[in-house]
Amino acid sequence: MKPIQLVIADDHPVVREGLQKMLGNQPDFEIVGEASTGAEAVKLVSQLQPDVVLMDLRMPDLDGAAATAKIRALEVKTSVLILTTYESSVDILHAIEAGATGYLLKDAKKEELFSAIRTVARGQAILAPSVTTWLLHKVRTPAQITLTAREEEILALVARGASNKQIARTMRLSEATVKSHLLHLFEKLNVSDRTAAVTAALEHGLLRLET
């Protein structure tokens, strides 16, 4: 039987080396390439068309979700298994929307990883238990987003085009504090940038643009 061909994409050499040693001991796995950036992962998939890519989320050039979307656009049979330390709602949604077949956390047991690789190689989806629980909760529970007064004020300034520096000066906060509030806003609204935050807030009735 032909082994499952794998590409490991992670910007940490130690992680890649550890995965290579662990997976190399399985007779039905064959590691055909390694990538340290999202762009390298896309290039390797285009060239090698492996069965599975183990994709980290946070990498230079392209993050894991963006690289996954580009791989899907190649129209190859390669499945993408996200292997990451991140389990925030934003990360999960972006990865799934980009076309990832699986989402597993790096603290998973090696037997879970082996099983997940074999599952996605067959084209079947696999999610970490905590991710499955979160998705089920999201589907079953109506979205109720509540913003603090400070978050509302920051969002209103963002909608007017204010930069972090301008917001900090207006509200007498440090830029680091403004950035922290924005990250919390992104998390609540399931978005990853300022424009999307304003759009989502308008859709949820959390913001009204001045006329």
UniProtKB/TrEMBL annotation:
<dbReference type="InterPro" id="IPR039420">
    <property type="entry name" value="WalR-like"/>
</dbReference>
<dbReference type="GO" id="GO:0000160">
    <property type="term" value="P:phosphorelay signal transduction system"/>
</dbReference>
<feature type="domain" description="Response regulatory">
    <location>
        <begin position="5"/>
        <end position="121"/>
    </location>
</feature>
<feature type="modified residue" description="4-aspartylphosphate">
    <location>
        <position position="56"/>
    </location>
</feature>
<dbReference type="GO" id="GO:0003677">
    <property type="term" value="F:DNA binding"/>
</dbReference>
<feature type="domain" description="HTH luxR-type">
    <location>
        <begin position="140"/>
        <end position="205"/>
    </location>
</feature>
<dbReference type="InterPro" id="IPR001789">
    <property type="entry name" value="Sig_transdc_resp-reg_receiver"/>
</dbReference>
<keyword id="KW-0804">Transcription</keyword>
<dbReference type="InterPro" id="IPR000792">
    <property type="entry name" value="Tscrpt_reg_LuxR_C"/>
</dbReference>
<keyword id="KW-0805">Transcription regulation</keyword>
<dbReference type="InterPro" id="IPR058245">
    <property type="entry name" value="NreC/VraR/RcsB-like_REC"/>
</dbReference>
<dbReference type="InterPro" id="IPR016032">
    <property type="entry name" value="Sig_transdc_resp-reg_C-effctor"/>
</dbReference>
<dbReference type="GO" id="GO:0006355">
    <property type="term" value="P:regulation of DNA-templated transcription"/>
</dbReference>
<keyword id="KW-0238">DNA-binding</keyword>
<protein>
    <submittedName>
        <fullName>Response regulator transcription factor</fullName>
    </submittedName>
</protein>
<keyword id="KW-0597">Phosphoprotein</keyword>
<dbReference type="InterPro" id="IPR011006">
    <property type="entry name" value="CheY-like_superfamily"/>
</dbReference>
<dbReference type="Pfam" id="PF00196">
    <property type="entry name" value="GerE"/>
</dbReference>
<dbReference type="Pfam" id="PF00072">
    <property type="entry name" value="Response_reg"/>
</dbReference>
